Amino acid sequence: MTIKENVMVVEETVLVSADVLRNFVRDVFVKLGVPADDAYISADVLVKADLRGIESHGVGRLSRYVDRIRTGLIEPVARISVVRETPSSILLDGGNGLGQVVSYQAMQRCIKKAKGAGTGWVAVRNSNHFGIAGYYAMMTLEHNMLGLCFTNSRPLAVPTYGRESIIGTNPISFAAPCNKEKPFVLDMATTVVPIGKIEVAQRKSIPLPLGWAVDNTGTPTTDPNKVLKGGGILPLGGRAEFSGYKGYGLSVMIDILCAVLTGANYLSLIERPVDGKATSSNIGHFFGAISIDGFRNLDEFTETMDNLIGMLKNSAKEEGETRIFVAGEREFEKEEEHLTSGIPLYKKTFLNLKKIGDSVGIALSI
User: Fold this and answer.
1) Is 3.30.1370.60 the CATH number for 78-192+234-328?
2) What span, in angstroms and rounded, lies between the C-alpha atoms of 330 and 44?
3) What's the DSSP call for residue 352?
4) What is the pLDDT of residue 6?
5) What is the pLDDT of residues 97-144, one digit of tens each?
6) Range(s) within the chain of domains with CATH label 3.30.1370.60
7) What are residue 89's phi and psi, to 5 degrees?
8) For residue 292, what are the contacts with CB-CB under 8 A and spacing of at least 6?
9) What's the confidence (pLDDT) of residue 277?
10) What residues contact 71, with CB distance under 8 A and at least 6 apart?
11) Model pTM?
């Protein structure tokens, strides 16, 4: 084990403090022409994923953003504009900037609308991947509101009975405040797993659990390489006999909210090459903020939330189990742990970050 300053290496894992990691990612974005405030937001979203134990959407994704900025597929300066607006809703054009930047602004506008109208809804087109959906849903918590977040994504999953990756992992997030309990934060893909978990398995050279994905013939596979080279992830639930059509339906619902409603791309239109060349994503997002006091006294709501969560956690447990979790609870505990001990990065991820840093003149070293 080696310890130097804010970084500690343990076997194949590198522990890095959240502040060091956030500053590094921010500085990389700045070097690529992203304004400092936007760079910080984008870095914070990525680091928050790693803090919460969502490795699939953390700084391991940085290379994808870097590559797309360098090749002109993402604009470093997001020129965000209002397309339509009503007292409770807005449609934004993200200017093909970083998804984190427009999404942060979109949820801020949702919250402002909800303070005046009771609810606020902001849809976004012409955007890019935005990190973890939970980040934006949780923005409402400090305002004692309910938060909703949806996004579509590039085609990575097969529809029920299909073998072509035509639907996205299209995540959903919902956040609700509590009194004494941790907030309820649901953050989930509408596929069995997000693509990041397939990528993590590939980086670590480990097999997938059977039931996560299929190869290019539609046959279930445990090989992440076969999934990433012509296969696809299964919808939430898995194959049809395990009700995968429900996840399939949810994914399409999100495409309707995020793309059909906004004018963004959908299904396999996202990142479809033109004349053999890569194209911008034109991803769509949909955000909502709901003021609780428009329906019920806040104290009554949060106390009832505590009771609901308590009933779940104190219900009879499966034999051999000592604890029942609710959505977001594990992630809050991981965040507390990682803020103290550092964020564990797989060594290959750490070395890739160093390579990115070296390419722009930013050091990340042990």
Assistant:
1) yes
2) 20
3) H
4) 55
5) 999 999 999 999 999 999 999 999 999 999 999 999 999 999 999 999
6) 78-192+234-328
7) -145, 155
8) 144, 145, 146, 177, 298, 301
9) 87
10) 278
11) 0.93
